[in-house]
Amino acid sequence: MNVPIRRLLAVVLLLFALLVAFTSNWSVFDAEELEAKTENKRPLFEAQQIKRGKITTADGQVIANSKKTGENESFQYVRRYPMGSLFGNPIGYSFITQGTSGFERSENATLTGEENEFVSIIDQIRGQQRQGSDIVTTLDASAQQLATDQLEATGRPGAVVAIEPSTGAVRVMASTPGYDPNTVPDDQDQLNTADPSVLTNRAIQDAYPPGSTFKVVTAAAALDSGAATPDTILSGASPQEFSGVDLANAGGEQFGDIDMRTALTESVNTYFAQLGEDVGAETLLDYMDRFGFGSDPEVQLPDDQKTPSGIFVPTDKGTYKQVDSDFDLARVAIGQGGEEGQVLATVTQMAEVAATVANDGKLMKPTFVQQVVDPDGRVTDELDPEVQSDVISEDTASELTDMMTSVVEEGTAEDLNGAVDGGFAGKTGTAEINIEEDLARPWFIAFAPVDDPQIAIAVTTDPCTGCFGGTNAGPIATAVMNELLNNG
Asked: Could you tell me the pTM of the whole model?
């Protein structure tokens, strides 16, 4: 064979090899990634001829099901949402032209029967149509309705998340204003441009200054690391200077030398600012990481519909960048911050903080899935509680429980004492947004009953004038806890 022919053969073989490589890469190695892309409609078209699994609440209410339309080979299944806007966030939607979102997207493989390809192949050979599995969620319809009603009554956007401390089961994830998934095919443009946003799940997609609820994290770091004890005495005088700027207690209230229990009970800013500096940035960041800050909550929602909590600074592009140094430690320790870094937390994250204290210091991996049932009625999966992190010791959790109980019995949440049967432990938060206008974001985190915690909760609403966590967010938390404890 002469040289030119050999060269031509080499080029042809090289091109053939490249063709095989790129084809393999697209059809095999990148198949899952390509299929998951929202722009790829092929899986959706195929899925419309598969009876998608039903989604129900733990108390038996149907959240999503599929209705068959059309005849012969042109038939398809169309998704329906009987409860309307109640579970728009977080369940989401699934439509052929609009794609999928929320839990519908993250659990698409289960809901379309993709998880068991062997059974799918056998069904095809037998001429049977593939079906998806049904999912029973951990969500409670009556408590979700109550949380939504309570939030809507405030007239401000807000969110509630309630979690079972010992299992991680998410019982409530409410976000207002919400949207009805049934309207997505016809009204998606209006939904996308709504102000305030209705497609944003404020429980897990937005992060806010947590205010004094974050003092529970600071106290946990101090106690568990040995930097302080419940009896550690520090000055509660107001104002005090930190990072060259005066910091005052709420209302300028004065305290003498006080211990940590008193400081948490009365939510004394100057005490916790000093405590934060005593703990140190490295230790505080370590405990934040243990609680789940710094990464997305591990619940079954798409990554682009979850937001991490942490310490952030704004960027020139209008986004936020997470930082781990050079921030105002004293102000971060009280759940706020400064230009060098501000604490921002999702409602889900703060519910996890409360749940961790309630569960003897162990953070359980949050989940929406109670049970999966295949088309033949077999239970193929069910909730199996999984420890996400050993955050603090049982002794530290007990000390924090005692202090958070004091908050309710004689502190900033005293007006709520007796609101929950069996008593409860809680922490108020009032994140200052504009001091001159008396504008603040109210927060409340809690768990109940104190002696045998069954539910942990976090609540916040958008800022309002003269707002306080105990009076504006606290009653929502106690109402939802009562519903879950008595009727859930």
From this structure: 0.89
